[in-house]
Amino acid sequence: MALETGSFISDLNASNPQSTDSVAQADDHLRLIKSTVKATFPNITGAVTKTHTQLNNTLDKTGDTMTGALTLSGAPSSNLHAATKLYVDTADAGKVDSTRTITAGTGLSGGGDLSANRTLSIASGGVGTTQLADAGVTTAKIADAAVTPAKLSQKLTAATAQVTTSGTSKDFTDIPSWVKHITVVFNYVTLATNGDVLVQIGDSGGLETTDYVSSCTNSFSGATAANGFLVRLSNAAFAMTGTVSLHNTSGNTWVATVAGGTYNASYAGIIGGGTKTLSATLDRLRVLTSDGGAFDNGSLNIFYE
């Protein structure tokens, strides 16, 4: 009788036993069938209820395609767990689509869509007072010494000094429209005659030579003037060192304060003041002698803010 050998069902020969084989060897065939079945299904300890169709449709763990929906037991709890639709939708709910864009507003540069990291920068000169919220920037938020005069557009500025060793007038022009305070500084200025010094201010229409209300006195005499802010010298021997401070009080009205002293054998203090309303915004200033005599010593300059 023909009897094959084998360990699993796949080893069985469906042609055995042959019709001419002896019945006496049938028990060997039965034992072979039982041993290969048990070896092939070693972990089957109960009834298998799946149909052959269901068994044939099991997924291959190396990769396969499902034809229906798969319901998971819940949200993933480990990195390699499968995620439910609810879990993914919840995670994506707070995310912004990469096609959204960031647009740089007034005073800013940069931006773009969200497909990459984007940087917004403050454009040079781009942030003015209109871009700062009320009380948005306080001194407590600015580091000590972080703001220097060089960073200010309206800082204390000195014009170019002018020597007063000749000529009858010295002009300072192109004074910015935002200026609210001007200081005229005299450094040992003397005249060739026994006259005085005037400070005149003006606008785009020119220097204004009338309607000043001004007075000034030194230790020896005083005077008034309507054609400029008066600096009382009255003596060619007097050397003026001091200031004329101009303050914009409102609109185009300017108030002057004169303070200084003279250096000569007698010494004399100089004090005075005045007011003048211009027809437009101040943009120029002139220092001149009151009688047309010449300057003959020293220098002067203006500082404005």
Explain what the structure shows.
There is one protein chain. With 305 residues, this protein is mainly beta. Among the domains are: 9-40, no CATH class; 157-304, Jelly Rolls, CATH 2.60.120. Helices cover 9% and strands 32% of the residues. The strands form 3 sheets. Strands 4, 5, 7, 10, 11, 13, 14, 15 and 17 form a 9-stranded antiparallel beta sheet that branches. A hairpin with a 4-residue loop joins β1 (101-103) and β2 (108-113). The termini are far apart.
Secondary-structure blueprint of this entry?
Blueprint lengths: L25 H15 L11 H5 L28 H8 L8 E3 L4 E6 L6 E3 L34 E2 L3 E2 L5 E4 L8 E11 L5 E7 L2 E2 L5 E5 L4 E4 L3 E3 L8 E11 L2 E10 L5 E10 L6 E6 L5 E10 L1
Antiparallel strand pairs: 1-2, 2-3, 4-17, 5-17, 6-16, 7-13, 7-17, 8-9, 8-12, 8-16, 10-11, 10-15, 13-14, 14-15
Short description:
The protein is mainly beta. It has helices at residues 26-40, 52-56, 85-92; strands at residues 101-103, 108-113, 120-122, 157-158, 162-163, 169-172, 181-191, 197-203, 206-207, 213-217, 222-225, 229-231, 240-250, 253-262, 268-277, 284-289, 295-304.
What would the keywords be for this entry?
nine-stranded antiparallel beta sheet, 3 helices, 32% strand, Jelly Rolls
Helicity, as a percent range? under 10%
CATH class of one domain: Mainly Beta
Low-confidence stretches: none
**Cα end-to-end separation:** 124 Å
Strand content: 25-35%
CATH fold label of one domain: Jelly Rolls
Q: Please identify the structural class as seen in this structure.
A: mainly beta
Q: What best-fitting shape do the alpha-carbon axes yield?
A: rod-shaped
Number of strands: 17
- CATH architecture term of one domain: Sandwich
Quickly count the helices.
3
Overall residue-averaged pLDDT value:
90
H/E element sequence: HHHEEEEEEEEEEEEEEEEE
* Structural Rg: 51 Å
Largest sheet: 9 strands, antiparallel
